[in-house]
Design goal:
3% strand; elongated; 2 domains; mainly alpha; Threonine/serine exporter family protein; cell membrane
Amino acid sequence: MPTDIVRLHSVFDLAMRVGEGMLTNGAAASEVTATVLRIISSSGLRDVVVEVTFNQVSLSYLPDDYSTPFTRIRATGSRVQDFARLSAFEEVTEHYILGTVSLEEALVQVRSIPQQRPHYPRWLAFLGFAVMGGAAAFSFGGTILVVLTATLASGALVALTEVMAARQIPMFFGQAAGGLIGVVVAVVLHALAPAQNSAIVVVACIIVLLAGLASIGSMQDAITGWYVTASARILETLMLTVGIVVGVRAGLLGAELLGLHISVEATAPVTLASLVAAAVSGAVMGLGFAVGTFTPARVLGWMAMVSSVSAVVVYLLTEFVFDRVWASACAAFVVGVLAVLVARRVRAPALALMMGGIIPLVPGSRIYRGLLALSEDIGRGGAELFSAAEIAVAIAAGAVLGQLLATRVLSRRGAAGWAFTPVVATPFQTPRRRRLTLPRRRRRDAGRIEPSTMTGEMSALPPSVLHDLQQELDLDAPAGAVGGPGGHAGSGTTDGARRSDAPTQEDR
């Protein structure tokens, strides 16, 4: 069996597994494409077409005009939020493109990531989301009783949605059930303690449910021109948000039948105490979200800091400078810049820091007021919901702009190819993609690679042999197995790049 054929399968396998892991965790199409191209380019392959869609990564390689194209497609699984695994995928990519690990070692590492145990116990993740809900209630001025109720309701709805997802029930119904739980708990609290502002419980539950849907990646795809992926992601987010609306609306109709009316009271005036409360609640919301999404422990403090800054900025701008839409956009811009800068410093995904930082900006109260007003005045309710949509778009646009400017500044300092620096760009074209994806600095002690003979060997094989070989190599070998796809790994780089896993004279 030609060594370079095995190497080609190994390189594609590594690139596609990393791309799948990033896409599953919500990374933008530009980031997934750039990361796959980093791996492909640093392995000595050119003219490889990378296509990233909503749930699929495909690679196609044509050695020359007379060869059979080599194409592989890998479909992703259901969406998850595990930023520890996302960080692991990016770390493997960084080590591989810098030449600190060989192709075989990178394959072993990337295959082991999906089998790793969660970074935190499952109960601790539920507790993180529950605490996030309680902090959201505190940010709206809830009393101790309201905060505790919101904490219990948030934990219950997250556990219920997880159970429904494990039983393969569509997530739309899980979101609807979560919204219904929030209203039911608020109605019970109102019945037991009428003096409490029980509507805050519903708002907190909406924020918890929306936290997983605040897909910066989908809006980044739309803004930067990756329209195919963006359209599917935005439709998914829209449908799941409609699920929340259906659940909350059903609960409100039931409350009206019981003669109950729970509304959000006016916000308290700006004082030093309210500013401190916004900062503390923002930090706790970010911390709870970080734990619930299995963010590495070294990033927890940074996540809380970014979220706290976001909460303070939007609070001050809303009260003294702009309306809520522009205030949210400015705060999201700050989050985008901080996320990029902090991500490179702590070696963590910028996506995780952005997702945690925008949680205090989620327009949960506006969504609730819009749903509450629909039964009385459809026009006013629709205006509130439209305003909430404006805020959501402003958050995404501000965060993407902050990312874009921060990455451009880092690129001038020679950090454009750093694995933890996101790539925010329009769909790549061949002359540009190498500058966008490959790092400028490589290890000096890595061995120089000779030109690969892969093109000649690919041309010599008939399509039937390639088909059978692909079926054989697609079977995952056990971790560390010598005979697996990574066991014969050679590697190459383009433009005189250096790699540490140079093929031996025998391989050539």
